[in-house]
User: Fold this.
Amino acid sequence: MTDQTPETPEPFDEAEYRRRQRSRANLMAVLLIGLALLFFFITIAKMTILK
Amino acid sequence: MAQSLTHGDLALPADWRDLFALTKPRVMSLVVFTALCGLLAAPGTVHPVLAFSSILAIALGAGASGALNQWYEAGLDAKMKRTAGRPLPAGRLDPQTALQFGVGLAAFSIFLMYFASNWQAALLLLVSILFYVFVYTIWLKPRTPQNIVIGGAAGAFPPLIGWLAATGSFAPLPVLLFLLIFLWTPPHFWALALFMKSDYAAAGIPMMPVVAGEKSTRRQILFYALIMAAAAIAPWPLGYTGTLYGWTAVILSALFVLLSVQVGTRTTREGDAMKPEKRLFAFSIAYLFILFGAVVADHWWPL
Assistant:
């Protein structure tokens, strides 16, 4: 950690901002697809049990 | 160098690795394993998709508890070497994000459990999350050296939840497994607290070695190890498990007690390497993993 004072804020790293935004968006897409599949398979499994 | 969180009004989005670290993945592995064993040791069979979903719900519930614990204890974590590098005390994550993540994850885990299994398991999952956050983290931990004795119940719920997810009802075996983790928690955590005493003292957490002293803690480790050993072996003579589990429990519990005797009867000087305490702590983790594995093995492949 640097000893910067509030008067000299750390330079804003736009590349880091975009990288984090992109990685979170990608992860969210994967999670949502995963959840959709999971809920689909849970429904099928419950229907199988009921039969 | 720590990454600055804000620049004017623009805040950096949290890195997913920091959100993942918030869930205490290492603690979660033991929770998932004991829950899975509870589910697999239950009578009957569970559809693999429903079993997977139930275990996932328990894992997410444990992750939510960990996140809410870290959100509440960020100030304390900053004072301890062991925890100062966590996302919140290190300044890589803002508290609001951590709180929203924890609450959202908890709500989703309960919904998933209800959808995949039954309301009984969902209710117990909710109780375990609330117990860990409100009873252990907020109420007991900063107030009493008995924090991990009573709070240990939160970590003992997973096999019960796993069993409930499979059957929808309680039975003596999962209650005994609950009791085993409950009694295992004090010697496990007090062994850690003995070699992390200065850290806990610096943070002002009233852990047993800080409040009651090392001698008393060592005596209590031995006491709990003895009753834990009895609880671990009990399912065998009571007829809830077979020979495979029985002998595994006897041998491992004897080793546990032996290591606890070493810890319980020694005195240390300044600068002691605390090797017996570290050995007991490491062994206690393996002990629980192997014992729960034996419960499942005994159910599926009895001798």
The helical segments of chain A are 14-50. The CA atoms of residues 8 and 33 of chain A lie 43 Å apart.
